[in-house]
Amino acid sequence: MNRRKFLECGIAIGAVGVCASPALGGQLTGRIRKSLKYSMIDERLPLVQQFQLLKRAQFDGVEISLRNGLSPKEVRAAIDATEIEVHGVIHGADDEYSASIDLCEQVGGNTILVIAQEFEELSYAENFARSLDIVRRAIPRAEKQNVRLLIENVRASFLKTAEEMARFIDELESPAVGAYFDTGNTITWTRQTAQHWANVLGHRIVKVDIKDRGHTKFGDPKLKSQAAIGTNGGEVHWANVRKELADVSFSGWASAEVKGGDAERLTGISKWMDQVLDL
């Protein structure tokens, strides 16, 4: 795909369901596919059986990383057998993206999750310039292989506000770069609400991580910010987040990123996602 065609595709490369007939339900019903991180599966089974477990729990896909040590051939076989998609690769903060981009293409994914890491010995401006350079160097390879680079809001980043993250993405001036919006990471250390981040990032959001540290079962209440006013005692005000995502016609993957477990717990996480996203 040449650069012009890639630009025309824009966010659509990571979107799903935009042409489907709307189903009855909430604002995001029919627009979101559910996923989780592969490391959340505690059942030690052959990969095909793990993917079958995800299908029974009503997940549509999963994200992997190089650290999982999965062979692309094995992953493709599990995808073919179960129709569970591996839609992305979690890269993290390493400066060299090539191996993650290659793995993503090999398993049929379309994004890698990356972090604009903070180095305390550098100034804000130096961190900003350094991370811009790292991402820029990866853009040609990502474009060639139809993979997008999604910047996630995390504790280890120097991008401490939604406005800073939006500016960082915009300065890269490439449709190959977008945002991986983590609902829970917005609150504990930024003092901005999840809905504020969703509003500011807006159309830049390509995928969403589902997390709420304040939730009694799927979070960690000991880490809850007492200043956060969320749903059912949590940190995230889910109705407000849903509205912001709906306002920009978000359509794509939402991945749980919470403590995993056995088949019963993964099914519970799937149902919790249905609830908070009103699917």
UniProtKB/TrEMBL annotation:
Keywords: Isomerase. PANTHER family: HYDROXYPYRUVATE ISOMERASE. This is Xylose isomerase-like TIM barrel. One of its GO terms (molecular function) is isomerase activity. It comes from the Bacteria. Residues 51-262 form the Xylose isomerase-like TIM barrel domain. It comes from Rubripirellula tenax. Pfam families: AP_endonuc_2.
